[in-house]
Amino acid sequence: MTSRGKEEPVASDFVRSYVIAGGRALPPADALSLLTLVTIAPGRQLPLGASPEVAAIWELCSGGYLSVAEVAAHLELPVGVARLLLTDLTEQGHLLRREAPPPAQAVDKRILEEVLHGLQRRFA
Fold it and tell me: Which sign, positive or negative, has the C-alpha torsion 36, 27, 13, 51?
């Protein structure tokens, strides 16, 4: 406030997460993992009246698959908020998603040793 009692407008680029999320609760953690890949569905157009965050997601994901973590990092948004926006777009049919790849299976140590010895015989 100023000395005369008038409020001055606050200029800031910072927007609170609950404003971006529309006050809604974040989706459950298993809804979209950090490694889930998302991209724009073929033939889709940016929804009318899309928020700046949705427009930024649209621009990012139109180039191909990105992980949820990458989208959140590029937009500098909390992961939960990014997951909420991505879930909305997925449910509306605007995004395709590909589940995270399964974790690598451990290979038998004996097989790795045989490969190593074969390479050593061949190139040593």
Answer: positive
